[in-house]
Amino acid sequence: MNCSRVTELFIDYQDGSLPPDEAAQMRAHLASCPTCQREWSALQEITRKLDQLPQPEPSARLRENFYAMLETHQRDADAPSPFALAKSRLDRFFEAILPAQPALQFAFALALLATGIFAGARWLQKPAVVIPATDEAAKREIADLRKQVDGMGKLVAASLLQQKSTSDRLQTVLATMDLKSPDRKVLTDLVGALAFDPSVNVRLSAVEALAPHAEDDVVRAGLLAALPRENAPLVQLAMIELLANVREPEAAPLFDRLARDETADKNVRDAAKRGLASLRTPATPADNKPNAQTSAPAGKTV
């Protein structure tokens, strides 16, 4: 047992509450340690002086105050409660309407519980949440449109792949650039070439051919569907610039994803950041002009 432990046990040792083995260790330590002997002697001296202090006697005024407080408390306890009359009337009312037998009281409680459950189910039902039909219809229309574009794109891609060479497919795409008002089939053919043609030159030419018709819903949906699967930086840059020029709001998540993609080309990441900033900037009257043009170089091949 060390000095610190002995000092902690001084009070218990003095009160005689220590176990016999610890008390024996305390005595052995005190017999051999001068420092603890001094501490123990000092504690004994303080205890002796405290025991010699005179006990204070209660004054006569303290006794008077105590009895005055006791009398006040008794008077308040004996005074009638202001709610006693109302409580008495309520007790008589419930005694008159409630049955006296415990079995009848139990049956009455069950009846009240059943009534409460019925009333809650009848009048407290939460109104069903009605989803606006217009929003759901718009979402279904967009989803159907994208599925339609994807399906048509696959068919066109299969058709293109069946052609003999890349130059034939490129000539097919370039021929559409001379059309000022191409029909829906031509646009879907171009979207399919953009999404599925294995040649970068054909896909880049498809972006250029689609640029004058970027206000068309099929073209915008095709660009949004093709951008995530595109891995050629030149084609990615052309699509980002076209979507930013027409201020397509649904392109923002794609731009943000490309801007954060460390595996993407640096020019693509920078273009995505510029496109994202452009979409977040309020539109000007010049931005709302129809048929925004892309700056992709005409006829550029890689």
Outline the structure in words.
The protein is built from 15 helices and no strands. It has helices at about 5-10, 10-15, 20-30, 35-50, 60-80, 85-95, 100-125, 135-160, 165-175, 185-195, 200-210, 215-225, 235-245, 250-260, 265-280. It has about 300 residues and is an all-alpha fold. Residues about 290-300 have low confidence and may be disordered. The longest helix is centred in the middle third of the chain and has 29 residues, at about 135-160. Helices cover about 70% and strands about 0% of the residues. It is elongated. Helix 3 packs across helix 4 (about 35-50).
List the helices and strands and how they pair.
Layout (H helix, E strand, L loop, with lengths): L2 H6 L1 H6 L4 H13 L1 H19 L7 H19 L5 H14 L4 H22 L9 H29 L4 H10 L8 H13 L3 H11 L6 H10 L6 H13 L6 H9 L5 H15 L22
Helix pairs in contact: 3-4, 8-10, 8-12, 9-11, 10-11, 10-12, 11-13, 13-15, 14-15
Short characterization:
This protein has 302 residues and is mostly helical. The chain is built from 15 helices and no strands.
User: What is the count of helical runs?
Assistant: 15
Helix content: 55-70%
Cα shape:
elongated
Total strands: the figure is 0
Unreliable segments (pLDDT under 50, ≥5 consecutive)? 290-301
Helix/strand-derived class?
mainly alpha
Whole-number average pLDDT?
Answer: 78
Largest sheet: none
Cα distance, first to last residue?
Answer: 89 Å
Strand content: under 5%
Task: Tell me the series of helices and strands, N- to C-terminal.
Answer: HHHHHHHHHHHHHHH
Radius of gyration: 47 Å
